[in-house]
Structure to design on (280 residues):
């Protein structure tokens, strides 16, 4: 009986110990599972927090970038408006400068026309004086003096186009040895290359040279007249060169040169008609 009891007790003890081990294992398994779940939940919470933080940072960066873009757009718009305003101002200044240039050029052209008309008027006066001189020589010719005086009176009032015609009519009434004719002057064939007031000066020079030819024909035998014609031709030759040289100078300077040349031609004109015995 003693051995059987001992065996039973021992077996019961082993079973109790096995149950205790099993219970402990189950408890430990439950605790391990609970810890695993808690760790998973904690990891999820951490991931969720990190995700929220990243999203927050992303939104913050997006807002910051949007503000930078908006600021840059405003700055570019401001620069564009300033550039447009500057361009409009430059265009306005350029238009104003162009208007001033056109106005200045118009004034210079008007001055050139006025100077050319003044020079041409002096040339017409020269032709009229020649015609008056020829009129005095026509006493007794087939053309009546009264008719020519009437023509000269009309020429004084009418357009300058009549003057070459009158001079030609008067010259044709002279004897064939006079050798002097008047009319339109071809500057190109005369060797003068000029335009505007310069061309008008060239016409005056050529007509004065023609008058010198007439003076040389009528009174070429006089030593004093011969010397006068030679010196005057030299003066006219220098004036020819001055007229052509003035074509390459600036407008303001060219106008002064033309005025100076015109004054010199006026003095030559007076000298020539003094030799011809005509009061200017």
């Amino acid at each position: 009986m003693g051995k059987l009891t001992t065996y039973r007790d021992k077996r019961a003890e082993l079973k109790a110990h096995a149950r205790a081990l099993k219970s402990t294992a189950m408890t430990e398994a439950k605790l391990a599972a609970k810890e695993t779940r808690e760790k998973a939940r904690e990891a999820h919470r951490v991931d969720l927090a990190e995700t929220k933080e990243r999203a927050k940072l992303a939104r913050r960066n997006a807002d910051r970038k949007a503000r930078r873009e908006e600021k840059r757009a405003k700055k570019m718009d401001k620069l564009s408006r300033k550039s447009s305003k500057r361009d409009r101002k430059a265009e306005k200044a350029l238009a104003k400068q162009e208007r001033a240039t056109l106005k200045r050029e118009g004034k210079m052209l008007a001055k050139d026309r006025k100077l050319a008309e003044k020079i041409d008027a002096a040339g017409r006066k020269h032709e009229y004086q020649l015609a008056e001189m020829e009129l005095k020589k026509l006493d007794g010719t087939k053309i009546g003096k009264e008719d020519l005086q009437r023509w000269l009176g009309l020429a004084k009032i009418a357009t300058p186009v009549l003057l070459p015609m009158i001079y030609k009519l008067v010259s044709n009434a002279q004897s064939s040895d006079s050798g002097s004719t008047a009319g339109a002057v071809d500057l190109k064939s005369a060797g003068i290359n000029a335009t505007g007031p310069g061309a008008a000066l060239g016409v005056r020079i050529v007509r004065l040279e023609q008058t010198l030819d007439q003076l040389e024909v009528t009174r070429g035998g006089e030593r004093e007249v011969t010397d006068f014609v030679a010196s005057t031709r030299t003066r006219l030759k220098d004036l020819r060169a001055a007229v052509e040289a003035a074509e390459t100078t600036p407008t303001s300077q060219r106008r002064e040169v033309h005025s100076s040349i015109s004054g010199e031609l006026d003095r030559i004109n007076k000298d020539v008609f003094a030799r011809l015995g005509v009061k200017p």
In short: Residues 111-276 form one domain.
